[in-house]
Specification:
single chain, alpha/beta, 3-stranded antiparallel β-sheet, 6 helices
């Protein structure tokens, strides 16, 4: 069952996963909105419906494994892999960098990189670099939400999302007046 962008956005609102306020994103940019996928992913039925819809969008790609960055992408990657009957591995933080510690990436293996939310794409780019440095191939990238707007990251592979939004972001030294007067929070991904 394909979900429309409006249905995905409404699902985020219904489960409290779309937050409004003043947030510091993983990239260091500030925003009025934050997609806290953890609030969606705590509901297995809802997250499974979302990940099924995402898996339908990437099901035509040829790949051997799904890989995702920790933390936010692990549940998304695992559920997308489950719907596509593919194995799933993940990269995790070690000394401030993403690394693949528990798994082996064999040369020539094709990967789909799965993430929850993409803004600048920094975590996805780290995972793509890990795959490529090991001789693997990034066949595609997918995320539930692409909030990169006009600044879509170049992953060197097809990028697919369920929901594409242009959400304003601001560097810390160029905040609009309404955000300057509100304390920033960093909710995590």
């Amino acid at each position: 069952m394909t979900m429309t962008a409006d249905q995905v956005l409404q699902t985020f609102r219904d489960c409290g996963a779309l937050l409004e306020g003043h947030f510091v994103l993983r990239s260091g940019l500030h925003s009025r909105q934050f997609f806290q996928c953890a609030h969606l992913l705590k509901f297995p039925r809802l997250s499974s419906e979302i990940c099924r819809a995402l898996s339908e969008k990437v099901g035509g790609l040829s790949f051997d494994f799904v890989i995702s960055p920790a933390m936010g992408g692990i549940l998304v990657g695992h559920d997308v892999a489950r719907h596509l009957d593919k194995p799933h591995i993940f990269a995790e933080k070690k000394d401030g960098k993403l690394v693949v510690r528990r798994f082996e990436i064999k040369p020539g293996t094709r990967f789909l990189v799965a993430e929850d939310v993409v803004t600048t794409g920094s975590a996805v780019n780290e995972v793509c670099a890990i795959v490529r440095q090991a001789g693997g191939i990034v066949a595609g990238v997918c995320s539930i939400v692409d909030r990169s707007g006009d600044k879509a990251p170049d992953f060197g592979a097809l990028f697919t999302s369920l929901l594409k939004l242009k959400v304003e972001t601001f560097p810390a030294d160029a905040l609009p007046p309404d955000l300057q007067s509100v304390p920033a929070t960093k909710p995590g991904s």
